[in-house]
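step 4 of 6: structure.
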Amino acid sequence: MGTKTIENIEGQFEMFQILNENGEIVNKEAMPELSDEQLQELMHRMVYTRILDQRSISLNRQGRLGFYAPTAGQEASQLGSQYALDKEDWILPGYRDVPQIIWHGLPLYKAFLFSRGHFVGNQADGLNVLSPQIIIGAQITQTAGVALGLKKKGKKNVAITYTGDGGASQGDFYEGMNFAGAYAAPAIFVVQNNRFAISVPVEKQSAAKTIAQKAVAAGIQGVQVDGMDVLAVYKAVTDARERAINGEGPTLIETMTYRYGPHTMAGDDPTRYRSEDLDSEWEKKDPIVRFRKYLESKDLWNEEKENEVVAKAKEEIKAAIKKADGTPKQKVTDLISHMYEELPYNLREQYEQYSAKESK
Amino acid sequence: MAQMTMIQAITDAMRTELKNDENVLVFGEDVGQNGGVFRATEGLQKEFGEDRVFDTPLAESGIGGMAIGLALTGFRPVPEVQFFGFVYEVMDAISGQMARLRYRSGGSFHAPITVRSPFGGGVKTPELHADSLEGLMAQQPGLKVVIPSNPYDAKGLLISAIRDNDPVIFLEHMKLYRSFRQEVPEEEYTIEIGKAEVKREGTDITIVTYGAMVQASLKAAEELEKDGISAEVIDLRTVSPLDIDTIIGSVEKTNRAIVVQEAQKQAGIAANVVAEINDRAILSLEAPVLRVTAPDTVFAFSAAEDVWLPDHTDIIEKATQVVKF
């Protein structure tokens, strides 16, 4: 191949798939060991999260939620990966990765408080989760650090982080992978390639044909996965996790997915940069539709089960909104109190000032 | 007691805390085998092992981000930014992330991180090594910014910084690293962060300063004494948060003040000190509070740095002006 090394590499990154668009197992030997109950639980979570997304969008439109980044289309990537984790594993999410931290234990009302810009939504209460990172890629170098810390403490746990295709352009993406690789730290870097960094298509973001191949330069494992296939995502993360805790270092996982909705609810209009043809092409790959077909063929799912999940989701969302509404109003003095362990003179003075202002 | 240079005192502080607390980790570019480009970590890897004192890949943002991750898992990281001019590469990790961790998480997490870094003029470095960027750091809520002026303070302040449960930016003036030795106790001791020290008492004017300008200010005070002007010199030691009581107490006594910093004039620590004096002691003042600083360029190319840097003659001139106002 002479000096044209890129040709040697790109061909090696074929998309890993287990369940195809029609709900058929196409890669039986890769099928993860999941019980019927676990398969049903995965479906439960995806259906629930789709409803949560729909309700969140409508609550946002009613002015009852704040910042919100829609998740529909990405359920398999988000929930299949989280489901492969141990409770003590760390999650360092990007701004769209709220579902993963909810399924890792964050109460729903806190997710709503995060959306409303209330600090109680960011309190982890002993969970190994950070609040969704706003700076693209900042969490990736932190993940290398959490992973190294887990290794130094002798824990059999991993740190997993999420970003999008846009995040793979950041310097921190390369630095995080490189650091974790250099220390053989138990980290998993998930890039949900939903094809657009807000509006810029992935083809215009990089000359690289895959994001997975970027692992090669860091000397770590890289895999491209069908991000609409919950079984493939689960399997890829399970394998990566296994290698990580065995001291075999980090893995980069690129999940090929699509967000059906806008970038966020703050005025983004995807019709300015995406065609209807592309939207419908991806909707045919829908993670829930194909998994439903698969489970129905195994007699593990039916309309009744689905309706139960939908009803449960709606009920819990309603209760969580009520709880969020009942949370005491956020005060500036609360914020002042959390700047330092002990307040310096300026904040002590300002605490008094705002205390007086807030008690009026 | 031992005679130590400031860099030896800094090494000694890290050794003390590496011994005291198994969660203390020291890392950065060249800090392991090589002992740091200034030898600040000399011998530490050998003594404490590569698990605790280690080299990093050459990427400042990665170092900052990794420090945060290590803090989240219970460590007390002491990363080094090889020269503080490189801080721009790690600004998000410092100001966007570690400074906000306690606040963002509503107290669920915090960042007991001490970022050590050499800075300061007078040693003819290439560009982006010597810049005084403490003003940038001091504007970030959530950080503490400490700048020692001598070996004794450096040890006590660095031990306090490492034990602090909030992030501390610990800036080490390169010119002071080996310029003089001082008696430094071999045992551990701390100096409280946020406390200034009156280095010289006086009655006519207060000189508020820090870092390498403490030596220049003391020299100026000696010369002013010959002209019959009694100057009090305050070494801030911590530039954020300020020790407001010491500053205001002194100004209320002398009724006059100047603020001396090596940094360029715009914004910055000196401007903040002037504003605080105006806020809190305006009626005690017999004259405006003036500043001695470098000009508002970025740090001088080394061929011009001797003129660019403020020195004791600039301090004498400004102090005299204020006293004769």
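step 5 of 6: annotate
 - The first helix of chain A runs from residue 5 to 10.
 - The longest strand of chain A covers residues 187-193.
step 6 of 6: archive
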